[in-house]
Amino acid sequence: MSTTDQPVTLVVRGARLTTPEGLSEPVDVLVAGDTIDDVVPAGTVPVPAGAHVVEAAGRIAFPGFIDSHVHGEAAVLDPDVQLAMLRQGVTSIVTGQDGVSYAPSAPLPVADGAPDAHTWATGYFSAINGEHPTFRGGSVADLLATYEGTTPLNVAYLVPHGTLRYGVLGGAARPATPEETGRMVALLREALDDGACGMSTGLEYAPASNATDDELVALARVLAEHDLPHVSHMRGYEDKAGTAMAELVRVARASGVATHVSHYHGPAAELVGYVEDAHAAGLDVTFDSYPYLRGASILSMVSLPTWLPVADPDATVAMLQDPGVVARLKAEHFPGLAALWGRVTMAAVPGELRWSEGMALLDVADRLGLDPVDTTLRILVSTHLRAGCVFAQPPTNSPGSVRTLLRHPAQMAGSDAIYQGGRPHPRGWGAFARFLAEHVRTLGDWTWHEAERHLSTAAAERFGFTDRGRLVPGARADVALLDPETVQDVATYEDPRRPATGIDDVLVAGVPVLAGGLPTGATPGRALRPTVPAVRA
Predict the structure, then answer these.
(1) Where in this chain does the record put each Amidohydrolase domain (predicted)?
(2) Which of 52, 86, 329, 503 has the fewest CB atoms in 10 Å of its CB?
(3) What is the mean pLDDT of the chain?
C-alpha cells in the first residue's frame, strides 16, 4: 500500500531482501521521491511511465549501511573518500567521535591569545580529522549546514566532550568546577537542540582525561533527558578495559544514560562479560568494532605520557626540545614502550619526513641513523604533533576475539576510519566489505539478515534515525545493491586506498549516487538528525 502521495519515481527491479529464513524471492522496491513507497513481488506492478529503473538482477538490496564510528567530518567532502564509502554500501556516517571535533566552537573566554575551540581541535586532531574545507568555527547547526546537498552521504554528528571542555576550561589539566560544568551542560543542550545525535567522550585524550565522575554524570543526565547516547572512547583498552568500563557503568547508573563503547577490542571473553554484566544490571550498553587487528591514532597519544600537555601542541613541542624533559622521558617513560616500536608504521607525516609514510618506525630509525626514541621525538617535533600511525594491537585482540565480539547482539559496525596521510589504515576503504566477505560469506559469523542489523539497523536505532535501517514502506530510500559472490575488500596496509568490489549501485534518498561502480555526481546527502528518541537496547 502506498505510503506517500507522490508518484513512484524510481524502481529497484528484481532485488532480493534478507529475512530470518534466508533471502527472499525477487521483489521490486518502489520509491516515491526520497521514500520507499512499497515493496512488492517482482513484476506485479507495472513500472510507472517516467520512473527510473535500477536493475538489481537478483542482487541483495540492503538498507544503506551506517558507519557508527568514523572520522569523516572533513573527509566526507572529498570525492575519493565518498567513493570509498559508497563502494562499501555506506550511505550515512556518525562523526564527532572520541571527544574532539570542530563544533561547538565559540571564542575561548579563559585566556588571552589562546585559540578558539575549532582551531584547537583542528590542530590537535589534524592527523585524525584533517581540516574541514569551509567550516571555520561556530555552532553544531553551522557545521551540520555544511553537509546539506554537498555530499552524496548523510552525516550525523556527536557533540565532542573534549571540545566542550576546551571551550570552557581551555586545556586546563584539572577537574571542572561546578560553574564550569554548568557552562558545559548549557553548551551541550544547545548542541543537541541543533541536531546532534548524542555526545562522545575521549577519556584517554587530554583534556577530557581530566574529567571526573561528577562532570560526566552532569552531562550524561542531559543526554538521558533527550534519550540520546553517551559514546565513549574509554579511558583505556586491553588490560585497562575493566577499570575503564567500570567508569562508564558508574556514569550510566547515576545518570540513566544509554552507553555506547567505541572501537571495543581486546580479550573477548572478558569484554563480553563487562557488557553482559551491565545488561544484567538493567543498563543499556552497546558497542562498535571493526574487523582488523591493527589500530590507528595520532603518534603523540601512542607514545607520550599524560603529564605532557599533548592537547596543546605548541607547549608540548617546546617541552620536547628541552633537554631536561627529554632526559626525564628517556628515564621514566620510554623504557616502558620498548615493545611498542616494532608494532608502529607511519601513516601521516606532514613536512620534511613525509617520505616515511608507510614505513615501519624501526626502518625510519635506521634511515635516520637514530634509535626509535629519538626517531619518535624527531617526527613529533618536525610535524608539530600532526603525525599519525598504524599499530599492531596486543595479541589479546586475536581473530577469535574479533569474531566473538562481532557476533554479540550489542555489536554494530564502525570502521574507525582515518583518511589522513599517504598510508592510512585500510579500514576506511574496506571495513564494511570485509565484514560481508569474510564474516558472512566465508566464516558464517553472520547470516545476511544478521549483517543487515549489525551494519545498518542497530546504528539507526541507537542514534534515533528511525526512518533508516530497514527497507520497508515509509523508510528513507537509502539502498545498497550487493552481489554476495563478489563483495570483497581489496585495500591492504601496503595499498590502503583501493575501493571495495561487489557493491556497484547505491541510492541515497531515492537518488542514484553510485551506478555501475561509478559516482553519479549527485549530492542528495543531508545532515542526519535524530527523528525521534533513540531506541533503547
Answers:
(1) 53-513
(2) 52
(3) 95
